[in-house]
TrEMBL record:
<dbReference type="Pfam" id="PF13302">
    <property type="entry name" value="Acetyltransf_3"/>
</dbReference>
<dbReference type="InterPro" id="IPR000182">
    <property type="entry name" value="GNAT_dom"/>
</dbReference>
<dbReference type="InterPro" id="IPR016181">
    <property type="entry name" value="Acyl_CoA_acyltransferase"/>
</dbReference>
<dbReference type="InterPro" id="IPR051908">
    <property type="entry name" value="Ribosomal_N-acetyltransferase"/>
</dbReference>
<protein>
    <submittedName>
        <fullName>Protein N-acetyltransferase, RimJ/RimL family</fullName>
    </submittedName>
</protein>
<feature type="domain" description="N-acetyltransferase">
    <location>
        <begin position="10"/>
        <end position="176"/>
    </location>
</feature>
Length: 187
């Protein structure tokens, strides 16, 4: 093994100042922005440069951090992944992932989430990961189910976008469930 942050298709790494054009391109697609978070107002190239420079020097907030997802084959930024709601006492955390439109449907998101869970469960002793996705976002729900996440609930009319309210699907996986499907590498 080279690095716990490297999977079969992607490497998770810190965001670098020169990554700003990739993130600007990702934000050009309104439908993608909706599925990741929400639609933000346009930002200037200078704004993206400033954001990337700040991200490059930002220290992790405990176990909450944002990383670039880089493809191993092309060595380009294909998306970003972040942890959220990390609670060491309860042993749970969440995550969010977004893959740029031109890089979708190549297995990058699945590989990136497996890399993240391997670290959070296998190194930091977290017990559970919880995620949510808009119900119409099958592109997010399907890979999570493939990894081993289970649908645990649905929040009706929970989020508003594109002129109406949408359901949110709640998914979760425990460290034991993950390890059954994705055994940790031997020492």
């Amino acid at each position: 093994m080279t690095s716990i942050w490297t999977g079969s298709k992607v490497r998770l790494r810190g965001i670098e100042p020169e990554d700003w054009p990739a993130f600007q391109r990702f934000d050009d697609h309104t439908a993608d922005m909706r599925t990741v978070d929400r639609v933000y107002p346009p930002r200037s190239a200078a704004g993206y440069r400033q954001w990337a420079a700040e991200e490059a020097t930002r220290a992790p907030d405990g176990d909450e951090f944002r990383l670039a997802v880089e493809s191993l084959s092309e060595r380009v930024v294909v998306g970003a992944l972040s942890t959220t709601g990390a609670d060491r006492r309860a042993g749970r955390f969440g995550h969010g992932i977004g893959i740029g439109r031109e890089h979708q449907r190549r297995g990058y998101a699945t590989d990136a989430v497996v890399v993240l869970l391997t670290s959070m469960f296998g190194e930091l002793r977290y017990h559970r990961c919880e995620v949510s996705a808009l119900a119409f976002n099958e592109a997010s729900i399907a890979p999570h189910r493939k990894i081993g996440f289970r649908v645990e609930g649905r929040l009706r009319d929970h989020e508003y976008c594109a002129g109406r309210h949408h359901d949110v699907v709640l998914l979760g996986i425990t460290a034991d469930e993950f390890a059954e499907r994705h055994p940790y590498a031997p020492l």
